[in-house]
Design goal:
The chain has three domains: about 1-170, Sandwich (Jelly Rolls); about 175-230, Arc Repressor Mutant, subunit A, CATH 1.10.10; about 230-285, Homeodomain-like (Arc Repressor Mutant, subunit A, Orthogonal Bundle). It contains eleven helices and eleven strands. The protein has helices at about 95-100, 105-110, 120-140, 145-170, 175-195, 205-210, 215-225, 230-245, 250-260, 265-275, 280-285; strands at about 1-5, 10-15, 20, 30, 35-40, 55, 60, 70, 75-80, 85-90, 115. The chain has a five-stranded antiparallel beta sheet with strand order 3-10-5-8-11, covered by helices on one side. The chain has a four-stranded antiparallel beta sheet with strand order 4-9-6-7, with no helix packed on it. Helix 3 (about 120-140) runs antiparallel to helix 4, helix 6 (about 205-210) packs across helix 7 (about 215-225) and helix 8 packs antiparallel against helix 9. The protein is globular. The two termini are about 25 Å apart.
């Protein structure tokens, strides 16, 4: 059970469990965003014309039977169509996973993942479906440690998902000592970029800070994170701006500069590209 309130287009949910399980998803739900992770699964077969459709930022995803969809904190999204109520949803705060020491280096990989298609990746899609069902069963059982069992199941699912993401987006598994050290250095680079994204960071300056050549750093950073340097830097600046829009009353122009953007026009264009709305609209969604 959870209590949900919506102010403007920011949805605030009070969690009475560590993991919310939702059925009876509405046929449509307007544009909104929230601070928790949401995983949707398509649970049964439908005619193709009735497939659910969900928009995340600027992309519309169509869910066939067995598909899953990941919606990450801060992503503006809406249910465009769910005509036969065929979606199951779990929701949880991101720190439930991101605070784990073993898992934290891979969070940036997962945020690049949205749809898991049963047609193109049946084994992973079926695994997610099975774990989602276990979480639902745990939450509905009512036994003494059902909440803990649901969290353990979530962790098992994310171990599988994280392994997949690391293989697909981060290159081969880091079995060698050299690979493990490279992963650690790339995680340090990600933290450095996130901490100082408002500064005049360049590929060359960060590579020098990490004691790498620019060429090696660029290639290794892309292999381990799935992003080019400029793209990752831009994402961190958008996230910095999002936090300032949510938690301060600073003017949008000031926020653009404090987030590392050199002009308000660039800020507006990039923010809309990543979040599907303007900075002013995003603040309105949050503050009502």
């Amino acid at each position: 059970m959870n209590t949900s309130t919506q102010t403007g287009n920011y949805e605030s949910i009070q969690f009475h469990r560590d993991i919310n399980t939702l059925s009876n998803i509405p046929q449509k739900f307007p544009l909104h965003w929230h601070k928790y992770v949401e995983i949707c699964t398509m649970t049964r077969e439908l005619p193709e014309r009735n497939y659910p459709k969900i928009r995340i930022n600027q992309t519309v995803y169509t869910l066939a039977h067995g598909d899953s969809l990941f919606i990450w904190p801060g992503e503006v999204h809406e249910i465009l169509k769910n005509s036969e109520d065929a979606i199951r949803v779990i929701q949880f705060m991101p720190n439930l996973v991101s605070d784990l020491r073993d898992f934290s280096p891979y969070i940036h990989l997962l945020r690049n993942m949205h749809q898991i298609s049963h047609e193109t990746n049946p084994s992973l899609a079926e695994m997610i479906q099975a774990y989602m069902k276990q979480i639902y069963d745990c939450q509905s059982s009512g036994h003494l440690f059902s909440g803990t069992e649901a969290i353990i199941t979530l962790y098992k699912m994310f171990i599988e998902i994280g392994t997949y993401a690391q293989r697909q987006l981060g290159g081969k598994r880091t079995n060698s000592e050299a690979q493990r050290k490279a992963l650690q250095k790339m995680q340090q680079a990600c933290s450095y970029i996130a901490d100082f994204c408002e500064k005049e960071l360049t590929l060359e300056s960060v590579a020098e800070y990490m004691n790498f050549s620019a060429c090696y750093f660029s290639r290794t950073f892309k292999r381990f994170t799935g992003y080019h340097f400029v793209e990752y830097l831009t994402m961190q600046r958008v996230r910095r701006a999002q936090a300032l829009l949510s938690d301060t009353d600073l003017p949008v122009t000031e926020i653009s500069f404090q987030s590392g953007f050199k002009s308000i026009s660039t800020f507006n264009r990039v923010f809309r590209q990543y979040r599907g709305c303007s900075p002013s609209e995003f603040r309105k969604y949050y503050q009502g």
